[in-house]
Amino acid sequence: MADSCRIINARLLQQDREIQGAEVIVDQGIITSIGPPNASTETPPLPTVDLAGQWLAAAPIEIHIHGAGTFGFETDTPDILENGVRFLLDRGIGWVMPTLAFSEPPLRRIAAELDAKPWLRRFVPGIYLEGPFINPKKRGGIQPEMIEPPNPERLEQILEMGRGHVRMMTFAPEIPGTAQLVPILRRHGVIPCLGHSLASAAESVAALDGGPFNTTHLFNAMSGLSHKDIGMAALPFLEKEVYFELNGDRVHVTPEMLQLCSTTLSPARRILITDAVISAGLNYGNYHYFGHTVESGTNGVRYTQSGTLIGSNRLIFDVIRNMQALTSEPLFQLWNSVTTVPSELLQLPEIGAIQLNQPARMVAFDNDFRVTHKWGFV
Prior knowledge:
Blueprint: E1 5-14, E2 17-27, E3 30-35, E4 48-50, E5 55-58, E6 61-65, E7 67-68, E8 71-72, H1 80-90, E9 95-101, H2 104-116, E10 127-130, H3 152-161, E11 166-171, H4 181-187, E12 191-194, H5 201-206, E13 214-215, H6 235-238, E14 243-247, H7 255-264, E15 270-273, E16 285-289, E17 292-297, E18 300-303, E19 309-311, H8 316-326, H9 331-336, H10 340-345, E20 362-365, E21 371-375
Parallel strand pairs: 1-4, 1-5, 6-9, 9-10, 10-11, 11-12, 12-13, 13-14, 14-15
Antiparallel strand pairs: 1-2, 2-3, 5-20, 7-8, 16-17, 17-18, 18-19, 20-21
């Protein structure tokens, strides 16, 4: 859309409410007015975009995504990050955290591409690493050769490979030696994430150091939750300040558990994710991932030979649609889980919100979550 325009008749999603019939003014890419109809007195008159009651919101953040549109961020292919990000931008996703099961070549390549293409850094807040310091018994779709024992010197090497772009890292706190990792991660500005783990609830709580912590894809690839044995999955129920990722594709987590989380866990710390892989946004069928054939269908994306679930074929608009259908939460609260909450975790308040005097990166969409307009995507 044009860098300057007057948007009218919008159902505007803000952090704490929905505003019906809202008007938003964008002048040379900057939001200069947010309010009720005819609230602005812009001069000269700007082109008008009449949304006719469609939703207007800050563009969402895909904080945990391995790829989409045949573009797998872990594949050693030139320009893979650019191609994957462009695919997602075309679909109204405003920020992308390329997520990698740790391997040196993809990490070096993604970091180098971010250095070489400054425009990408406008849309990529950083790199998310799953591993290598995880429990092999909870590796999920991560290949065995990608797992290493915790080692502070090795962590420093990995972060150096990332050239300052690594922002999140998943590790298993029950593995001996992981306690030494958190101070190093903090020093480098990397958010510690707990997951791919058999840790007990007590071991999970003991790993916390008072700073921001994240739980990687809650319930998936971690010790579970029962009335007699509570594992890592209990962490956000016990520690309300811990951020947690929740996959709303209805495959990784059952609809009933998604509903339970909606009524019992704090939306202020919930980050909705897809954990999408190469087939996301495409038709069902067979694809190749990590040298293996994978099948993408109604039951997610799985290794054909073993049936192991490795990721989702959904994108974040699909997840929001699912959560709206399953819960009684207002849409603005669900939308926070893909905008303001991840931006708070990343400590990037300038992204994920429609704010006065800030650059506009917004999407308009209908009740079926089909994107109709975009601003700030160039």
